[in-house]
Amino acid sequence: MRGGEPTPEAALARWRRALADAGYAAPLPAERVPIAEAAGRVLAEDVAALRASPPLAVAAMDGVAVRAADTAGAPILIAGGDIAFVDTGAPIPDGFDAVVRREHVEVDGAGAHVAEAVAPGADVRPAGEDVPAGEPLLAAGRMLSAFDAALLAAAGHADVAVRVRPQVAVLPTGDELRGAGEPLEPHHVVDSNGPMLAAQAAADGALPALHGRIADDPARLAEEVMRAVLVSDLVLLVAGSSRGRRDHSRDVLAELGEVAVDGVAVRPGHPVLLAVVGTTPVIGVPGYPVSAAFTYELFGHPLLAELLGRSAERTAVPATLTADVGGRDDAACMVAVRLEPAEGALRAVPLARRAGALRALAGADAYIVVPPGPGLAAGTPVATLRLRDR
Known about the structure:
By secondary structure, this protein is of the alpha+beta class. It has helices at 8-22, 146-154, 193-203, 218-231, 249-256, 289-308, 358-362, and strands at residues 30-34, 47-48, 58-59, 63-66, 76-79, 84-86, 98-101, 105-108, 111-114, 124-125, 136-138, 159-163, 167-172, 177-178, 189-190, 207-210, 234-238, 258-262, 266-267, 273-277, 280-285, 316-321, 325-326, 332-342, 345-350, 366-370, 375-376, 381-386.
């Protein structure tokens, strides 16, 4: 590892300056979509209730609507004209102020035989009980859930303003790569990074496009990168920073645009490239799977958050390390952990740190950042950052 590499924070800031100088702009514009298509999208503006929910008083249970005063002295018979049958969710007819549950009333030709007295408002949901009209509901930058979509519909919204989804191109490179399910020779490598990075981008609200592999040919690489940047908001050039003899990405990106960052003081993932071609950000992603995953976490995730106008902060969960974790004097270290409950708290179990340890990554709940230095001892309180926020 070469000296003088920036920290991840400094690298991200340097890349953002280069992007701003090139004319890159964020966030993306807004578009309106029907509520039925809103889940998974990011709100572009604050939203308030257009109407109350429920819009008027409704029954909370099946039964008969009554005037509560008429039930005083129960058990009592209420004449048929002074009751109204109601089902759960049905409007309470004018003049009535309570519901007697079906199991507490018998109705015959004489009227309703009420077993117990009820108070005004019994089993009645008043207008606006859930959401008053005009109430602020959801803030811009929120990724909408299925429950958010239901709330918006109930509050009178037929559609909602959301950010346009970022287009993310994932470009695997290397003669040795083969897609999942393709016939393999002994020297072939299955492309696991491409599907992983595409899925990470999709989870962040983007529309990923996983391209076919690009051969180790600089002219072909330049052609495919240019095609991608013309239609994408972010390009992930996979295994495009290994510094091997067949790695042409650095020279190609420098020829097509600007390489703002060439290496970062972090492990795994230090040989990352952060570039801009035209106005499009490009990340040269290291080839080892854990390196690729954390490179996306450090640089792809915050950039997509910026494009979508939302916070990039992960949920921080306090835990206690169960084992020593070594560090490095020249770099921060990202370590995947599994979280386990222990006496009302959480323990962070460090997982395998090999750059190709996909099984450990798949079993991780979160990760920790070990600052430059000797590392952290077992029993140290740590802030774990959730990998599965959504």
